[in-house]
Structures are given as C-alpha cells and as structure tokens.
Design a protein that fits this description.
The protein is about 5% helix and about 35% strand. The protein is mainly beta. Strands 1-3-4-5-10-11-2 form a seven-stranded mixed beta sheet, covered by helices on one side. The protein has a six-stranded antiparallel beta sheet with strand order 12-21-20-15-14-13, with no helix packed on it. A four-stranded antiparallel beta sheet has the order 6-7-8-9, with no helix packed on it. Strand 20 (about 255-260) and strand 21 form a beta hairpin. The relative contact order is 0.11. The structure holds FE2/S2 (inorganic) cluster (2 copies).
C-alpha cells in the first residue's frame, strides 16, 4: 500500500481502525486518490459552509475532500462534479463503504473503496460495482456560485416524514394509522435530525423507537421484517427492535428514544 493510502486510512479512521482496514486491502488493489481530510465545525442549525476556493483539492471539477465534522458519526466525502451546462455541481456522501466500512476514496469519476473495490456513483451514491450492495447515504447541499460557498445541511430530512421540532417527532394516527396495530413499523428521516429513525409497535402493544446508526462503525442498520430485527449490512451485527445487540461485533445498543402516546398520536422524544 502506498504511503498516501496508508495516511488516508489513518487520517480518516485513526491508527487502530486504519490497521484493520489496511489488512483488508487486496495486494493488487490499485491506488485510489485519497480525498484530503479537513475538519470543519457545524453551525448550531446543523449546516456546514465550505468556501470552495479555500480547498484546492475540491475547487477543480473531479476534485474531492473528506470533511470530518465533530459530533457526526461518519466523515463526509465532498465531490465536485461536472453539472449540466458545465455548471459547478457538488455532491456530499457518507465516506464509509457500506460493505465492511472502509473509508472511501475518489478516482476522479467514481467513489471507490480501496478494500474490496466496490464502486459508487459520485452523484447519488448508488452501487456501481459490488461487493457492496447498499447505496451510500447522501446529504443535501447547495452551492452558491456567487459566493462560491457550498452549504451542507446535515439535518435535512424527508419532506414526507414528520420533522423533529425541539427533539420531538409527532406521528398523528390520522397520518400513521398503522401505529395503532401491533407489529407495525414506521421509518424515515426527520428534518431537523438528518438520520433515519425507526418506530415500532411491538406485538405486546408497547412502543419502541431507535436510531439507525450502528454502534460498531456507524453504518446504517436496516429493518428485516422476516426476522423482526435490525441488521447492519457492514459487519452483520443485529439488534432487537428495542435496540439491544443480538449479534456482534457491535457491543453497545442502538440509541433509544423515549416514546409516549396520546389519543391522537405517537410522540418520539429526544430526537436531537
Ligand atoms: S469495505 Fe469491502 S468493498 Fe468497501
Ligand atoms: S458498522 Fe460494523 S456491524 Fe455495523
């Protein structure tokens, strides 16, 4: 492995995890251009502003940087794409591979994993080449060509899902009648939180709500209806719908939210 790739893994993950990722690298893997790492603090509103001209590795089309934001579970890969009519276009993706969580690089065209060579679209995160099967998470970002500032919104969510307001997400039974039924699941990304949450009405009638971020290496878990559990595609940890670990390597439970119920709605609290 070249010094630059070793440094890249170290820079993004830290020494221990970099060593683990390095051992996963196939001997003949091509060098992937590392996206230089920079640390940026988010505003109280959860936005990150990047003055593109300040980052020479990002400024040209085909450039990319890795941005670490304190408090965010994974670093962001920011890519400068060629937009329609040669307009500047940027995409922001999770920089951790959904196969087994190696840090990703960029080859000027695609997002590439140096560990087992999965490839992802740099514009929408879709898998272009296995072994990864799960798309990369994307983040909402807007570029102002006048000021040359790229604003990344870490708390953007789905417009068709209830927002988190003061840490509370309200699911009216009018809109979510299934939450009256035992065995129901509702999942989505609340605006104001920016990460997927799951809400369950369990078979005994109790309610549970958990975060989707795996406590092993921060991949996003998915719900398996058949097994009635949450599964992490990165290293196959599993969790109950109440967030408890049932299969390692994760050892810590998922973040749990408190849930209350009124006659009209289910209310999830602590979504901060
Ligand atoms: S970790 Fe295996 S392809 Fe990325
Ligand atoms: S990130 Fe490793 S099991 Fe989830």
């Amino acid at each position: 492995m070249s010094t630059s790739r070793r440094g890249f893994l170290k820079g993004v993950l830290g020494t221990g995890a970099a060593g683990a990722a390095a051992t996963a690298l196939p001997g003949c893997a091509p060098d992937i251009n590392p996206a230089p790492v920079t640390d940026v603090t988010a505003s109280a509103a959860g936005t990150v502003d990047l003055l593109v001209t300040r980052y020479p590795e990002l400024e040209p089309v085909g450039g990319a940087i890795t941005v670490r934001v304190p408090g965010e579970p994974v670093p962001l890969l920011v890519v400068h794409n060629k937009g329609a009519n040669a307009r500047d276009d940027f995409s922001v993706l999770s920089s951790i591979c959904t196969h087994v969580a190696c840090p990703l690089g960029f080859d000027g065209k695609d997002v590439v994993c140096p560990c087992h060579l999965s490839r992802f679209s740099a514009t929408n995160g879709e898998v272009l080449q296995r072994p990864a099967t799960v798309a990369l998470k994307t983040f909402t970002a807007e570029y102002n060509p006048g000021t040359k500032v790229l604003r990344i919104d870490l708390r953007a969510g789905q417009s068709d899902f209830p927002p988190a307001v003061n840490g509370q997400v309200v699911f009216p039974f009018l809109d979510y009648p299934q939450l009256r039924d035992n065995g129901a699941t509702v999942s989505g990304v609340p605006t104001g939180y920016g990460k997927r949450i799951f809400v369950f009405r369990l078979e005994d009638g109790s309610l549970s709500a958990v975060d989707s971020i795996c406590t092993h290496q921060q991949c996003e878990v998915e719900f398996r209806a058949q097994d009635r559990d949450l599964f992490c595609p990165c290293h196959a940890s599993t969790f109950t719908r109440q967030g408890e670990v049932t299969e390692p390597p994760a050892t810590l439970p998922l973040k749990k939210f408190t849930v209350t119920e009124t006659s009209d709605a289910v209310v999830v609290n602590g979504v901060l």
